[in-house]
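Duplicate of earlier report; Adenylate kinase isoenzyme 6 homolog input re-posted below.
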Amino acid sequence: MVLGRQKPNVLVTGTPGTGKTSTASLLAEAAHLRHINVGELVKEKHLHDGWDPDLLCHILNEDLLCDELEERMKSGGNIVDYHGCEFFPERWFDLVVVLQTDNSILYDRLMNRGYSGQKLQSNLECEIFQVIREEAEESYRRDIIKVMPSNTIEDMSNNVEALKAWVASWVAPLES
Ligand code: ADP
Ligand code: MN
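Output:
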């Protein structure tokens, strides 16, 4: 018998500024999982095809990223933090968390991050039109998706508590 993962893999996704990195790092600590900040990994390991001067971000090389992560994902116990989700293998994840933030709150967070013009606008629209939520619903089974509000610090601590409890009760599926 081949042993599958003994700890779950969780994807934390959502529009930039919704709180993925803050939530994922708190959860990683609380639930003893490894936080993988995809944006940073892509920069660090050059898993990109250069810089997009219009979108002001790296052009992700999805194949390089997935190859880089495959072994770690097989062994389980990861929290993957990224603002996209459709190109990851579906089999990687036991839970997909979509964080959502009200528009005026997100606006302030992105302004604080120094976003402006087209970049600010397109991220706000991404959230208004629930682009990431739809992407998640098109890519993963509905019963593994949790959509969670991330407006306040209280939301964040409620989310971390709920997710920590989910991790604690997760049972590895039997392999045939
Ligand atoms: P992301 O990784 O999704 O881009 P971050 O975790 O970097 O988002 O959060 C962006 C900013 O918003 C940070 O300054 C963070 O402290 C703040 N923030 C995120 N989530 C919340 C929340 N639920 N309540 C209050 N502030 C938050
Ligand atoms: Mn982040």
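The chain has a mean pLDDT of 96.

Merging into the original ticket.
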